[in-house]
Description:
Elements: E1 2-4, H1 15-32, E2 42-44, H2 50-74
Parallel strand pairs: 1-2
Amino acid sequence: MVAGCEEGSCHFISGNLRAKKRVLYAKKLLDETGVNPERLEMFHIAASQGPLFAQRSAEFTKKIRRLNLEKSGEEKTESCCQINAEDNGKHMDKINDSC
């Protein structure tokens, strides 16, 4: 998820527009490498719109979880290689060696 200023109101003049182009290019690269480009999204949100940022973040998180569930039906997930944020890597020795 990439968040940038609303179009036409960026403090860095055209930084948000350059970021938008880069995100579109990155989505193309993801697709070419077999990664679902829906896993990357850019949102134009003003700094004063904290609740909207929180809403978009929650929506994007749900989307990624849905994509993970869809992928798990197609092939082995990489969940065994992921570290739980609460774990802080304390149990690295328990990570499945088959990953």
